[in-house]
């Protein structure tokens, strides 16, 4: 129900998470890394150097210009100079995301996972890889993978939301945080009989969720009762602001306040020990953490009143 099943979007098979483009422009056997530099494996000399932090990419103009509006403008601005170097230090996702985007431009297969999809989606937006330049460009394909694969999976939604921590404000502006929060909230509020236990109660790994038929032999009986707090540990790995977003969405969807309060207490119990100054009793978590602490205190107070009546 919520694992990464095979999806076909616009003729593209997303089952194995592999993207490629049919018009590479420059024939190549792939990319080669030499220290902090990436080179295209081809006999055609590089005519463009892209620098991202300490990492450099020795590339060719045509494959990038044919798919990226930003690269088009950047190269145009270099037309009257002898320089062929472009710095993209503010590219979301950093050199890892740009490497995947560049490979896509060259027609090299790109393996999409829950770990890299948010950075690549943000990088595609930054590079303006739109449908105006080429049908089935990177924005469209990463958006399709997010919508049809990631958001159908409990674990992938959490992994992607976790990966958004280093992608502000891009992940917020592209609604990745909101959509993942809504996906997690919807699944947390769903009938627990549909929960696949292999995806819960464990720290999400940096891989896409395995398919159900690969794990069904080790799965518990469908008659095994699922505790209502099955989702607490998974959401507790999220950064505080993303946790608040998920909890807010869960509250809006009508989950019992006792469970919402228990989830907040679970989160606070996990993270508060490291957020308290030793010997002082004061908190170091900032306004968002104080918000969670205040909410937790309110839940405890309400529970205490209930016990005394």
TrEMBL record:
The keyword Transmembrane helix does not apply. Pathway: Protein modification; protein ubiquitination. The keyword Electron transport does not apply. Pfam families: BTB, NPH3. InterPro entries: BTB/POZ_dom, NPH3/RPT2-like, NPH3_dom, SKP1/BTB/POZ_sf. Residues 229-309 form the NPH3 domain. Keywords: Ubl conjugation pathway. CDD domains: BTB_POZ_NPY3-like. Residues 1-23, 205-224 are annotated as: Disordered. PANTHER family: OS12G0117600 PROTEIN. Belongs to the NPH3 family. This is Root phototropism protein 3. It comes from Sesamum radiatum.
């Amino acid at each position: 129900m919520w694992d990464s099943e095979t999806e076909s979007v616009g003729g593209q098979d997303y089952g194995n998470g592999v993207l490629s483009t049919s018009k590479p422009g420059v024939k190549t056997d792939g990319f080669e890394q030499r220290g902090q530099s990436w080179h295209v494996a081809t006999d055609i000399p590089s005519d463009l150097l892209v620098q991202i932090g300490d990492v450099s990419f020795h590339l060719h103009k045509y494959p990038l210009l044919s798919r990226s509006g930003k690269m088009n403008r950047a190269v145009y601005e270099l037309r009257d100079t002898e320089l062929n170097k472009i710095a993209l230090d503010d590219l979301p996702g950093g050199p890892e995301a740009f490497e995947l985007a560049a490979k896509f431009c060259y027609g090299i297969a790109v393996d999409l996972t829950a770990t890299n999809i948010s950075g690549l989606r943000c990088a595609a937006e930054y590079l303006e890889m739109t449908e105006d330049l080429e049908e089935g460009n990177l924005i469209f394909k990463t958006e399709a993978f997010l919508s049809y694969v990631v958001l159908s999976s409990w674990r992938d939604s959490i992994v992607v939301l976790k990966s958004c921590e280093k992608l502000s404000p891009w992940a917020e502006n592209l609604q990745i945080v909101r959509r993942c929060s809504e996906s997690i909230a919807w699944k947390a509020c769903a009938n627990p009989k549909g929960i696949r236990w292999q995806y819960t109660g464990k720290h999400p790994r940096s891989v896409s969720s395995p398919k159900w038929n690969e794990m069904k032999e080790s799965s518990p009986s469908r008659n095994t009762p699922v505790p209502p707090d099955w989702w607490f540990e998974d959401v507790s790995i999220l950064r505080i602001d993303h946790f608040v977003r998920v909890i807010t969405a869960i509250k809006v969807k009508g989950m019992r306040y006792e469970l919402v309060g228990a989830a907040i207490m679970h989160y606070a119990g996990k993270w508060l020990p490291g957020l308290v100054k030793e010997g002082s009793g004061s908190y170091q978590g900032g306004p968002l953490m104080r918000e969670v602490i205040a909410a937790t205190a309110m839940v405890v107070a309400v529970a205490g009143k209930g016990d005394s009546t």
